[in-house]
Amino acid sequence: MIESLLRATLLGLQLGMTLALVAAGLTLIFGMMDVINFAHGALYMFGAYFGLLVGESLGSFWLALLLAPLIVGLIGAAIEILSLRPLYGRNPLYHILLTFGIAIMVQGIVVQIWGSQSRRIPAPDLLTGSVSFGPVTYPVYWLFVLVLSTVLIGTIWIAIERSDLGILMRASAHDTEMVDALGVDVKKVFTGVFVFGSVLAAVAGVLLGASRSVHPGMGFGVIIEAFVIVVIGGLGSFKGAIYAALLIGLVIAYGALIAPALTDLFIFTLMAAVLIVKPSGLFGATEAA
Amino acid sequence: MSELTDVGGENDARPRSSSSRRLTVDSIETYYGDSHVLFDVSLSVGDGEIVALVGRNGAGKTTTLRSIMGLTPAKSGRIEKDGESIHGLDPHQVRKRGISWIPEERRVFGGLTVDENLRLAAHTADTDQRERIEEVYDRFSRLDERRTQKAGTMSGGEQQMLAIARALLGPETDLLLLDEPSEGLAPQIVKDVESIIRELNEEGVTVLLVEQNAEMALGLADRAYVLETGEIVHESSADELLADRSAMEQYLGVQ
C-alpha cells in the first residue's frame, strides 16, 4: 500500500512538472498578450509528432528532444506573426476563434500525415530499466522526465524573478502600452513569449510522447488539463500555474490508484472548489508572477 | 506658427526659429475609433522651453500627448522632433528619439519594486545605465529609501517621483511629455513636483506639460496653449494668459 502510494506520488510529481511546462506557456501568453491560446495543445502535439519523426528517422531520442522543440518554435513564430498579430487590440473572442481553428487544423494535418493510430516515441537505451528506492521501483525514464522538467521550470522561475527579461515579462503583463512607451518593442516581446511557450509545450510533448502515447487526440486532451491548471493557479500567474500543475499531477496519480475512471471528476471538482473559495484562482489575477 | 490667435501686440515668448524647435505638431487630426477628438491641432515647443497645454476636462490634452507619442496615432498632419518626422512611428521608436512620456495616473508597474521599475526603463538604452540609476537615486532620495518596495504600495507623490525617474532612464531624454503630474497630490507634494520640473528644465530638458491645474502649469511655463473640444483656441505667453482674467475664466473656469 505504502509502496504504491510512494510510487503514485513520484508519478504525480513527474506528470505535474511536465504539465507545468505546458501550463507555464499558456499562462504567460495569457498574462502578457491577453490571448487565450487554444492552439497550445496542438503545439504540444506537434512536439510529440515531430519528436516521433526525428526519433524514428534519425534513431535518436536526444535529437528528437532537441530538434522537435526548435521546429515547433518556428511554427509558433509563424502563428504569432502571421495570424495573432493582426488581431491584437480587438475583442479577445477573435483570438479564441482563431486559435481554436488552428488547433482543429493541426489535428487534421496530424491525422493526414501520421494516421490516427496510437504511437510512442522510443525512449533511449540509456533511460530504460528501473531504479529502486527501498521498496519502490520506478522507471528510470520517468525519473529523467521528473528531473529535467523540474530543472527547466526552476530555471524559468528564477529567470522571471531575477533577470531583466523577467522584469520585462512581468511589466508587460501589467501594462503593455507603458512598456512600449518606455522604448521596448512589444511586438518582439510578444513573438518571443509565444515562441518560448511553444518550445516548452513541445518539450513536454516529446517527454510525454515517450511515456504516454502519441495520438491525434492528445492536443485537446492536454489543453483541458492545462486550462484547469491555469484557472486553479490564477490566470496569468506563473507561480500559480506551477503549484496547480503539481496539484493536478498528484490528483491524477492518486486518482488512478483509487478510481481510475473518476480522475476527470476529481480534477474538475478540485477546480470548482478552488473557484468557489477563491474565484481568481490560488494566485489571483493581479499577481503577474 | 508663431502667430498668436487672439492676443496681439508684443510677445517676448515667441517660439524661436524652426531650427531650434524641439517639437512641431502641425495640423493633426486624431480619432478614437469613429469619434473625432483633435481638430487641426498645431503647436510647437522650442528647445529649452516649458510649454503648458491647458484646457478643461475632455478637451483633448491627453490625446495630443498620445498622438505625439504614437500611442493614438494622428490620422493626418505632421509631427516633427528636431526637424525630423516622427509621425507614424511606434511608441518605442518615438522614445528612442528622446521623447519621454509620463502618463496620467503615473502608471508605474505596481507589482514591481522601485528598483525593478528603474531597471526596466534603463534596460532599453544601448549604453550601460548603472551609473545613471545611481544618479537618479541621488536625485530622488525618497526612492533610494524604497528600492525594494513594491511601487504599488507607495504614496501618489512617491509614485510620481518614480514615474519621472523612470522617464529619465533609458535612451537620452530631451523632451518630456508630462500628463497631469499634480493630479491627486497634496499641495506640498505638488510644489516638490514643480521644483523637479524646473530643475530638469534648467538642466536642458524641454517640457510639454498638460495640466488641469492651470495655475500651477502657467506658473511653470514660458508659453501656453489652450485646448477646447479638440481645437487650439488660444496661444500666448504663460504670464499673459495668467494675467488675462477673462480668458482664464472663459477657457479654464478659473475665477
Characterise the protein shown here.
The complex is a heterodimer of chains A (289) and B (255). Chain A has 289 residues and is an all-alpha fold. Chain A has a single domain (2-277), classed as ABC transporter involved in vitamin B12 uptake, BtuC. Helices cover 74% and strands 3% of the residues of chain A. Chain A is built from eleven helices and two strands. In chain A, helix 1 packs antiparallel against helix 8, helix 2 packs parallel to helix 4 (92-114) and helix 2 (40-58) crosses helix 8 (186-209). The mean pLDDT of chain A is 92. Chain B has a six-stranded mixed beta sheet with strand order 6-7-8-3-9-10, with helices on both faces. Chain B has helices at residues 61-69, 91-96, 114-122, 130-139, 141-144, 156-168, 187-202, 214-220, 238-243, 245-252, and strands at residues 21-32, 35-46, 50-54, 76-81, 84-85, 99-102, 175-179, 206-211, 223-228, 231-237. Chain B has 255 residues and is of the alpha/beta class. In chain B, 35% of the residues lie in helices and 25% in strands. Chain B folds into two domains: 30-98 and 174-255, Rossmann fold (3-Layer(aba) Sandwich); 109-172, no CATH class. Chain A binds chain B through residues 164, 167-168, 170-171, 174-175, 177-187, 286-289, and chain B through 69, 71, 90-92, 94-96, 101, 103, 107, 109-112, 116-117, 119-121, 123-125, 166, 170-171.
Task: Outline the secondary-structure elements.
The complex is a heterodimer of chains A (289) and B (255).
Chain A: H1 2-33, H2 40-58, H3 61-84, H4 92-114, E1 130-133, E2 136-139, H5 140-162, H6 164-174, H7 176-181, H8 186-209, H9 218-233, H10 238-258, H11 263-277
Antiparallel strand pairs in A: 1-2
Chain B: E1 21-32, E2 35-46, E3 50-54, H1 61-69, E4 76-81, E5 84-85, H2 91-96, E6 99-102, H3 114-122, H4 130-139, H5 141-144, H6 156-168, E7 175-179, H7 187-202, E8 206-211, H8 214-220, E9 223-228, E10 231-237, H9 238-243, H10 245-252
Parallel strand pairs in B: 3-8, 3-9, 6-7, 7-8
Antiparallel strand pairs in B: 1-2, 1-4, 4-5, 9-10
Helix pairs in contact in B: 3-6
